[in-house]
Amino acid sequence: MKEVSFKNDVLPLKDKLFRMALHITSNREEAEDIVQDTLMKLWNQRDEWSAIQNIETYIMTICRNLALDAIDKKERQNISLNEMVHDQPDNSQIQDETLIRQQQMNSIQAIIQQLPEKQRTIILLRDIEEKTYQEIANIMGLSLSDVKVNLFRARQTLKNKFNKS
Amino acid sequence: MNYQYIEQLLERYWDCQTTLEEEQILRSFFKQEDVPAHLMPYAPFFALETVEKSEKLGEDFDKRILAMTEEGNKTVVAKQVKFSTRLAPFFKAAAVVAVILTIANVAERALQNNSVSNATVGITDTYTKKEDITAKIKIIDHSQSEAMAKTDSLKQAPAINTEDMMLE
Fold it and tell me: How many CB atoms lie within 10 A of CB A103?
């Protein structure tokens, strides 16, 4: 088995971990703390690295669990989708296409934030981190069919809500 | 231009039937500048990856983590201590005790020697010449013979007649 280097193999995963923690907690500082805790937790288990089959899957699982623990402790601050939509200026007044796109992007991100955590994390892992269904199942400790069902629901919600807004 | 393939892919995407490669094709397509108007509303969904991937941690984070792991390394790495090294303090203590005992023993002997020599200082005068030694022996012999003569004279003295004393 390939020897794992913390600096070369583990530390470069920090941004993926950060995005996952950020999606779950919706708080940058908290997400950064979670990534730090995740990396230190893995570092403290360095004697057992040889027994870990896939270090990336393993560390992402740790990160997700720590992020879930964090939101259990603290009531997450939700951004209401309706508020987001109300905050948007009238599209007809905006000539700048880039600005329209930016607002659409904000709407999609707001809809994603409204999804249940499981669906939100699956969307992140599939559409942003480009993981296979099997990898997602391993990271989240779900069955393959659970992953597919949750992804289907998440995409349908996104499509429907985005079309309405 | 025919966008039927893209439209089919899009339908399959919403139904979660696309592969990672097909989803990559959709992302590439919607990144283009000239996306047809009827497909434009879906563009933000596929731009999400680019936007989200811009969320990164700074280099100071790396430095902080590496500093923490190096610190951890320092405390975790254990020195291999030999058995003889472990016993070194006991050896040192034993050596100190041995030195103290030796000094005490030497000091005790020195004190004993001093007291003996003081007691015999009168008869242990040193003589270097043969004549001096002979003279000294003679003096000792003479004093001894005198002492013996005195004791003999005491033995020969007439005993007191106790009967005479009683009659008187």
Answer: 19
- Nearest Cβ partner for A39 among B13, B15, B65: B65
CATH code for residues A1-77: 1.10.1740
Topology (CATH level 3) of domain A79-165: Arc Repressor Mutant, subunit A (1.10.10)
State which residue of chain A sits closest to B55, comparing Cα positions: A19
Longest dimension (CA), chain A: 61
The answer to whether position B164 is within a domain reads no
Contact A43 B69 (CB under 8 A): yes
Residue percentage of chain A with pLDDT more than 70: 83
Residue B68 with chain A: CB contacts under 8 Å? 40, 43
- Residue B77 pLDDT greater than 50, yes or no: no
ipTM: 0.74
Given a contact cutoff of 8 angstroms between Cβ atoms, the answer to whether B6 and B29 are in contact is: yes
Q: Which residues of B touch A152 (CB under 8 A)?
A: 15-16
